[in-house]
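Hi support team,

I submitted a single chain yesterday and got back a structure, but I'm not sure I'm reading the token output correctly. Could someone confirm the output below corresponds to the sequence I sent? I've pasted both exactly as they appear in my results page.

Thanks,
R.
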Amino acid sequence: MRGFRIELGEIEAVLVRHEAVSAAVVVAREDVPGVKRLVAYVVAGGGGLDVAVVRAHVASALPEYMVPAAFVVLDALPLNANGKLDRRALPAPEFTSADEVYVAPRNETERVLCEVWAEVLGLNRIGTEDNFFDLGGDSIISLQVVSRARRAGLALSSRDVFLHPTISALATELDEAGAEADDSGAQQGLVLGPVAPTPVREWFFGTHPVAPEHYNMSTAFALPADVDLDALRTAVGALLDHHDALRSTFLRTVDGTWAGHLVAAVDLDAVFTVHDLPSVPDEDADWQALATRTKAGLDLEHGPLVRFVVGRPGEGGGRLRLLITAHHLVIDGVSWRLLLSDLATAYDQVVSVGVTDLGPKSTSVRYWADRLNGHVQAGGFGEQVEYWRSVTASAAFELPLDTPGGGNKVADQAAVMAHLDADETHALLHQVPGRFRTQINDVLLAALARVLRTWTGADRVAVNLEGHGREEIFDDTDLTRTVGWFTSIYPVALTLPDQESEGAEEDWPATMRSVKRQLRSVPDRGVGYGALRYLSGDLADDPDPRISFNYLGQFGGTGESAENRLLGTSLPAVGSEHGPEQERNHLIDVVAVVDEGRFVVTWYYSAAVHRESTVAALAEGFVAALRSVCRG
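Hi R., thanks for writing in. Yes, this is the structure output for that exact sequence:
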């Protein structure tokens, strides 16, 4: 706890001011060597004691770093023979993975929420006082929580998770009887017709004039040996019916712009194909060639814009392989989670009962686009213009270059990877957010700010952030189960405190507070910026940062599920996602993900502009900063 001046008596005084607390003592425990935590021992007054309420009371009166990590409720404080507090008799908290005392669910709503959280976070047990963000939760995972809670009949929103990050607090906001989730009036049949422009779509067509049809997201799996390919084909058909964006086409208009349209049907035989591969050793090469042709062969005008390609090995060959590739215009990172989960669910349903039921739809991409454009035309987001102009004022946009004037096409792209091990990743996700009372994205950007300042020499560096874009701006929309491309791209100017001495571990609290303030000040988590730049044109002349950051969240679930049974074995990426002659949008793209319990960050760069050694030093500096904050 270096860098803080913590007065335990001050925390105790705040605790006993709460009407539910009759006595309290706070100690700094070190039950795990090298890891100190504040633990509050409280005695309830005449009535019951709600730990979440007491924690909120402390948080409202004291700095975040003085809010205890755990609360232990006692019948009475232990006393020694002299009537004084016996600190040695204070019990050690039973810490869970969230570093909180486990409190079991008390009713059906809490039980369902505990199960949902455990499933999406990959944990064995969740207590009702565990904090969502201390568990490693983030905005993307919150969407998964909402989606699965709604399936269980709980009318929950992503905003609810952020405002009430413990299950006990969240459950009190829900109907005790478990009211059915509102589908926000989502159209349940096939949604057809023109789709109005969206910010990310306009950004894409404005910045990708070369081979716009070749801009994909893909994943590949080894299928079980006993997979039923006919059932898999039927499951894919169910996805095309349920997720309207997968039936998108895009036409270039006479004025050079692009118009989107949802068609009634897509040829299933063009979407789902099976290809026989030759026997080893040519099998891998043929699979690579098949993937390359598939990714480069999508047709924006006629479709389909999603392909499910099965590679069937020859005699003596390997396992069945499945490549799923989709144009980025119809899918994003959140959509992948939905699509893979629904594919596995539909496949299991076909095999077991012969029919599919993927549940109710959420808001369609068509309705969302209409709603957003109407809001912009009515002056929506207009009050944000001055904020966005102030963000990049006096910020450094240029980056140091090893080879000024070098090319920056996709063909020039190279990548450097760095990672944390499993123990370090666990600390990053489950200990650091709670220690600083913040969220994982804040921690990552605080580390990035440190690295960029060292490299550029500037205290204020402009960075493009990517968010999932599915913010709850309108009461009549719900995008938690909608497949499509909703990504928000917006600038921040990462600013560090003037008094910070570079690299000092004790300065992390100041860094974290500075970055946290900046990110919390972003209105609507950046959705307004794209609308103002690409739909209204108010910010059309804004400069573009030369570096981007995107945290994709956590992948790699645990346990036995339909998805794991069908798609449990991932395969390496094959084929190029983008056309080689396309100009890259940034000089450096930093992409972070937690995959199978390990934090991995990839720094993409142009080998014609930067040396590998330069970018490797940045990548290693970034993970070194994260290790530092884990130790701090």
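A quick pointer for reading it: The longest helix spans residues 333-353. Let us know if anything else looks off.

Best,
Support desk
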